[in-house]
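#onboarding

Welcome to the new folks! Below is a worked example of what a typical request in this channel looks like: someone posts a single protein sequence, and someone else replies with the predicted structure as tokens. Don't worry about understanding the tokens yet, we'll cover that in week two.

Example request:
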Amino acid sequence: MNKRVHQIAAASSAVVLASGIFAGFASVSANAASKKVTIKLWADNNAYKSVVKQFEKNNPNISVKFQKVGSVDTTKYMQKDSTTAGDVAMLPHDQLGTLVSQGLVLRVSPTYSKQVKKIDVPGAVKGATYKGKMYGYPYGVETQVLYYNKSKLSASDVKTWSGITKKGKLAVNFGETGANYVWTPLFFTNGDVLFGKNGENASGTNFGNAKGTQVLQWIQAQKNNPGVVQDNAGALQDLTSGKVDAFLSGPWSKIDAQKALKNNYAVAKYPKISIGGKNKQLQAFLGVKLFIVNKSTKHPAQAAKLASYLTSNAVQKKIFTSIGYVPSAKSVQNSAAVKKDALSKAVTQMSKGATPMPKIPEINNFWTPMDAIFNDTWKGKISQSQMLSKLQAFDKQIAKSSSK
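Example response:
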């Protein structure tokens, strides 16, 4: 943690510990603050073991017990028994609404909220906030990117969809399960919204309009594009064999893409597409990596202090260097090290225009019917004359299922 952030955190702790005036935030007595306490940390990588050692040196009255737990498992464990879960834990931001609605997450204090807003990019701040209140401490961002064979496609080619598909073969998934995650942002690209502008209005989806119809028309047109290949599970194998020259995926595919392409490995942000008569930057969902404080913790102020430390500029920089998590901190994203790394550079570029995955519990009602819309459009089961009515029915279905 840099000196300025350390001073802010120290001042915040002193105020909160002494007064306990913020209902719902971390608050303990001054006597309790002087006692040695143990905080259980759930994180998905052993790199955090060395990180917390410095925190313990800075805070001799706080001992950190590290446990390796995947962020995607936090919700189910906390729902099962929050009293045995980590005091501080990693969480994908799209699960935040579920845990908050069940009263399992401690709100971020006003002082730490100001710190997050100062440090992190706007999309990360939005991902950490639910119904106008902050509950998470961001430490990273994720988006999908374009992996491509640089012996077949140039950096100029991959700037546009037409540039890629006229010169090479692009593997995409329109026709199988999982199309929902990759292609829902097409609606955002064309100006529509999912669950309202802030992603928290259960009845606020507006895909059933002219812009939404243009999205489905664009997808259907790709059926006749010789440079587009319907390819899902076999995309990496086809990239290796040369059957395709590019595919869309996230940071989790970096190692596999490097193995497939070897010296011809390259990565870039998504291309621009022509939709509705205009050239627009193709969007992707934004995923925000968070630390949250368990509301069942016996040491809320100390846990909040640890969460703040783990998401500071200094720690985000160290974690990026050691394991490559793309930071959410503005200054770290702008550092030479991040800009030098092609994947991180592409993700940070994408994150500036990406829409955070909605975090309301109703998102669970969305995925299956959205897949059906995309799959049926690709397979020709939805005609152009049916597109508007199908999308309008979809909007109503989501609103109706969300109200249950």
